[in-house]
Amino acid sequence: MEWTISQLNQLQHKGLSIDEIVDVTELKELNNSIRDISPVHVTGRADLSSLKVTFHLTISGTMILPCSRTLVDVHYPFEITTTETFMLRHTSDFDTDEETHQVQGDVVDLLPVIKELIILEIPMQVFCEDMNAEGAAPQEGEDWQVISEEDKAKQIDPRLAGLANFFNDDKKNE
User: Fold this and answer.
1) Confidence category of residue 72, pLDDT binned at 50, 70, 90
2) For the segment 122-174, what is each residue's pLDDT rounded down to a tens digit?
């Protein structure tokens, strides 16, 4: 996923299509929350000029992340659509509203940008569908249990339970 500036200049009139499978397993060492990641499929095209290269990419794959509640493996599919611009030469005429990358040396390398986008795609919390999955943390124990938000809303505070019958007792005394 890297090209020299001279290669990109040669492709300027033909155009550049991208359809590659990229191995990004080293992301597991960079981010502890990624337990595993499949090879990533990168597709797109590049708009080439003498001053800049603009890549229009779609990055898709699947990460395995720990469930925030039970620590069970959760398959988290992702699809990122992005536009990344690389400046081939430094110029002050360029519109600075776009996200741009300066080319270091004479090679345009997309792999660090792809890795950064994948890391930014990791959610703060991810939950597994099956709470009773093998290897999941227990949902109850001696004198405790996990309560969902719906169950908590239905539950009556035991200190106020006696008030539920307050008006019923009042009618019986009349």
Assistant:
1) confident
2) 999 888 876 655 656 666 777 787 777 777 777 777 787 777 777 775 555 55
- The arithmetic mean of pLDDT across residues 73-87, rounded, is 92
Tokens of 154: 């239905």
CB 139 within 8 A of CB 132: yes
The CA-atom distances, in angstroms, between 122 and each of 27, 34, 70, 75, 136 are 11, 8, 18, 12, 21
Closest CA to 80 of 103, 56, 104: 56
Q: Smallest Cα–Cα separation from 39: which of 27, 26, 28, 23? A: 23
DSSP for residue 165: G
Give, in order, the Cα–Cα distances in Å from 37 to each of 47, 53, 89: 29, 28, 35
pTM of the predicted model as reported, rounded to 2 decimal places: 0.71
Bigger pLDDT: 15 or 137? 15
d(CA 171, CA 173): 5
C-alpha distance from residue 48 to each of 54, 92, 174 (Å): 7, 19, 89
Q: What are the structural domain ranges in the chain?
A: 2-120
